[in-house]
Design goal:
This protein has 558 residues and is of the alpha/beta class. The protein has 18 helices and 25 strands. The structure holds zinc ion.
């Protein structure tokens, strides 16, 4: 349901900017319900900001300021810190074309046409991943022939895309569709435009790289989406050349979200040592110090590694229990590289989904601690999706940060039990058990998701998922494994402080207290006084980064 907007009231405080004393705040958010995230003092009524930092937080009469915004009782929280995004892909999808939920002619034509109107003439329209939700709705998984019935043809879009070569793909990447302009450029003759196998691979390989301007435009789109949802830090794993985009945005004063950047090829650790990208490197806008890698695959493709076989294996491979990734295929070498990166004070951030994968990572961590000595590592277990009951205690003992995505839970639970059975699901997305074990949760979105699912950056979806463990339609009524639900405060903490802690930045971010960066979000809905189902409709009224109002919904939506 839509909430009635609270009228915005701006009032200018009595301080006169030029004559105000050095102590006068630049900005005060007054008459607010401030959730501070500070233990023991969770609520206050106003926040004062000077420069890019919070100078005071309190209740009662607020101090004078150059500018005072009357919050009319609205909820003010620390800006969201999304600990897991793929920023460049998200921007590409926002500006390009998203066909995940498309499986008919009309939808296909409309989406492609809209992308052509958005993009400058001559730019390619690629990706798309049509038909993903059609497949899932049929209770199936990627790649099965019955799951992918919709087949488009170029005659649907040719007349709408004379100036845009189009080469979009089906979600399983086994089929592509090229329009007349693309076929022309590729030198291929095809009446339908449908390409498969080698022809498709060759065509994809010939698509020219995106121009820098296009990538800038994509990043601007993604930044707007972050501002819209109160996200003030993203922890990004884009390809390395994305750093050029951040540099330019920053020079131009357009960077409205702080970036924590992780290279995501394990072999990059040597380059990181050379560049001194160790923990703490960079500054408050672009921070380094972490390397991301994978130990296993994913549930969707049954490539996540388990101790026991999948429950729904085909009779041909009854004992299949998942596999490894690029670098973990040789576990000894994998551990050597991780150990060397850790010795150079690079923080490790490893994708682990299956219970055995998570368990092996903990074994490796224990050996690293032994070999490289004890220190605050905050090893990041990325996804930590299915944990074996014997491993929760170990996670707590080693200061592990679980970098988890609560929205995944509600998206995956549709088929999790079928795939790994009820017993193993007890340790799946087990946020309560992780907290109880002493683990810090760092929430994130995994925006924009995979070729089979779109994960929105909107943190309200994540809060909803963590607190209810229900689909966005409210099922199951009591939540999926409801004993793993979190309180709202725990979920908020994981989406603010948790991410800051994960990147060793908790002294600067994640709470509303004196000395912290003034990164704030103002919501139009009091999450503490409403049902979680209402959070899905909640909106962010203001996003403030470093004391600067970067999003004001009343202006954006006029
Ligand atoms: Zn991811």
């Amino acid at each position: 349901m839509l909430l009635v907007g609270i009228p915005l009231a701006f009032s200018i405080g009595c301080g006169v900017p030029e004559e105000s004393s050095a102590d006068t705040a630049d900005l005060v958010l007054a008459n607010a319900k401030v959730w501070t995230g500070v233990e023991g003092e969770p609520f206050a009524e106003w926040v004062a900001v000077r420069g890019d930092r919070i100078t005071a937080v309190g209740s009662g009469t607020p101090p004078d300021a150059k500018k005072t915004l009357d919050m009319n009782g609205r909820l003010v929280i620390p800006g969201f810190n999304d600990s897991h995004v793929h920023f460049a892909s998200a921007g590409g999808l926002l500006l390009g074309v998203n066909l995940l939920d498309v499986n008919d002619d009309e939808g296909f034509r409309q989406r492609i046409q809209a992308a052509a109107e958005r993009l400058p003439k001559g730019s390619w329209i690629t990706g798309g991943d049509w038909g993903a939700y059609e497949a899932w709705a049929m209770g199936s998984e990627g790649g099965e022939s019955t799951a992918t019935q919709y087949v488009p043809r170029r005659s649907l879009i040719d007349e709408h895309t004379p100036d845009h070569p189009v080469l979009v793909v089906r979600f399983d990447r086994a089929m592509g569709l090229a329009n007349a302009a693309a076929l022309d450029e590729l030198g291929i003759v095809s009446e339908t435009g449908i390409l498969k196998e080698e022809e498709l691979q060759a065509a994809l390989g010939s698509v020219p790289e995106k121009s820098f301007e296009r990538r800038m435009a994509e990043a601007r789109g993604a930044l707007l989406e972050c501002r819209r949802w109160g996200v003030t830090t993203v922890q990004d794993m884009s390809p390395l050349d994305q750093l050029d985009v951040y540099d330019r945005l920053r020079e131009d004063g357009e960077l409205t979200c702080r970036i924590h950047f992780s290279p995501s090829r394990l072999s990059d650790y040597e380059m990181m040592i050379e560049k001194e990208w160790t923990v703490g490197a960079g500054d408050e806008w672009v921070r380094f110090g972490t390397i991301k890698t994978h130990i296993d695959g994913i549930m969707g493709g049954r490539s996540a590694r388990f101790f026991e076989p999948y429950d729904d294996n085909s009779p041909d491979v009854p004992n299949w229990r998942g596999g490894w990734r690029e670098f973990s295929g040789d576990l000894e070498k994998f551990e050597e590289m991780l150990t060397a990166a850790d010795a150079a004070r690079i923080q490790l951030r490893v994708h682990a989904i299956g219970d055995e994968a998570n368990s092996i990572m903990l074994d490796i961590l224990e050996r690293i601690e032994k070999n490289n000595g004890t220190r605050s590592r905050r090893f990041r277990l990325v996804h930590a999706q299915v944990i074996h009951p014997k491993d929760f205690d170990r996670i707590g003992q080693h200061e592990v940060v679980a970098e988890v995505q609560p929205y995944h839970c509600t998206d995956d639970m549709r088929w999790m039990e079928e795939r790994i059975g009820h017993e193993r699901c007890k340790g799946a997305y087990a946020f309560r058990s992780l907290i109880d074990a002493g683990c810090t949760l760092a929430f994130g979105s995994d925006w924009p998701g995979t070729n089979a699912s779109y994960y929105p950056v909107n943190p309200l979806f994540g809060l909803y998922a963590a607190v209810t463990r229900q689909t966005i339609n409210g099922t199951p009524p009591e939540g999926w494994f409801p004993e793993q639900r979190l309180s709202l405060e725990e979920a908020l903490r994981a989406y603010t402080y948790g991410g800051a802690y994960a990147s060793f930045e908790e002294n600067d971010k994640g709470r509303i207290k004196e000395g912290q960066l003034a990164d704030l979000a103002v919501l139009n809905t009091d999450l503490f006084e409403t049902e979680p189902s209402e959070w899905l409709e909640a909106r962010v009224d203001y996003t403030i980064v470093g004391g600067r109002i970067v999003f004001d919904r009343s202006r954006e939506e006029g």
